[in-house]
Amino acid sequence: MKPQDIIAGKTSLWIFGYGSLVWKPDFKYQRSKVGYIQGYKRRFWHGDNFHRGNDELPGRVVTLIEDDDETTWGVAFEVAGSQLEESLKYLNVRETVCGGYMTKMVDFFPEGNDQPPVQALVYIATSDNPLYLGPATSEEIGAQIAMSRGKTGHNLEYLLRLAEFMRSSCPHVEDHHLFSIEATALTMVSYLLAAQ
Ligand SMILES: N[C@@H](CCC(=O)N[C@@H](CS)C(=O)NCC(=O)O)C(=O)O
């Protein structure tokens, strides 16, 4: 969906982030809430040849994979009024044009039992995306991340900041996929540094 189609008739919109958006939204918003969406798992199965990698060595970034038994924790940002058009235009370039993500509306559940779900826009890179890399072992993904760098920075930063967000904001969530990749990537980096 084009940004103008998403905001048509809306005065505010929640946007759910689960990757770099949780630690670097870089767009204007009114408020944010930690919470989750149901029916998806976060996986480092999307390639990135711009922000955190290049054509020769694409980085690995996260996307959402449908799974009825899973939930994914992140942050939702409420964008309102004059922020809407500017924020969505920015995200369209960062996520869709540069990152290959498409948009979808999902139910976002703010943490805390007393809060009802709200509809939120989410950026998802599906398996038919040319940048999609698909499943790999934590060792393979960690090694790829330890060696990838793009126009925005090192792929390791992307991984470590997401892991840091989950530890600090969602300490009750055990994300084995994320933390096993983090452990592998840090081990790889220690070997690379020791070999210098
Ligand atoms: N759509 C996910 C993932 C977003 C994501 O990681 N997108 C990449 C584009 S490939 C990005 O914005 N990277 C910026 C960066 O790595 O600093 C989210 O909601 O956080």
UniProtKB/TrEMBL annotation:
Q: Look up the domain of life of the source.
A: Eukaryota
In which compartments does the protein localize? Answer: Cytoplasm, Cytosol; Golgi apparatus, trans-Golgi network
Describe the reaction catalysed, as an equation: glutathione = L-cysteinylglycine + 5-oxo-L-proline
Looking up Gene3D superfamilies in the UniProt record yields: Gamma-glutamyl cyclotransferase-like
Name of one Pfam family that matches: ChaC
Q: What is its EC number?
A: 4.3.2.7
Q: Say where the protein is mainly found.
A: cytoplasm
Kind of enzyme, top EC level?
A: lyase
Give the record's keywords alphabetically: Apoptosis, Cytoplasm, Golgi apparatus, Lyase, Neurogenesis, Notch signaling pathway, Unfolded protein response
Q: Which InterPro entries match?
A: ChaC, GGCT-like, GGCT-like_sf
Provide a GO biological process annotation.
Answer: apoptotic process
> What GO cellular component is one of the record's annotations?
Golgi apparatus
Molecular function terms, GO-annotated: gamma-glutamylcyclotransferase activity; glutathione specific gamma-glutamylcyclotransferase activity
> Which PANTHER family does this one have?
CATION TRANSPORT PROTEIN CHAC-RELATED, GLUTATHIONE-SPECIFIC GAMMA-GLUTAMYLCYCLOTRANSFERASE 1
Q: What does the sequence similarity comment in the record state about its family?
A: Belongs to the gamma-glutamylcyclotransferase family. ChaC subfamily.
The record's function comment reads: Catalyzes the cleavage of glutathione into 5-oxo-L-proline and a Cys-Gly dipeptide. Acts specifically on glutathione, but not on other gamma-glutamyl peptides. Glutathione depletion is an important factor for apoptosis initiation and execution. Acts as a pro-apoptotic component of the unfolded protein response pathway by mediating the pro-apoptotic effects of the ATF4-ATF3-DDIT3/CHOP cascade.
The name of this protein is Gamma-glutamylcyclotransferase
Q: Which organism is it from?
A: Maylandia zebra
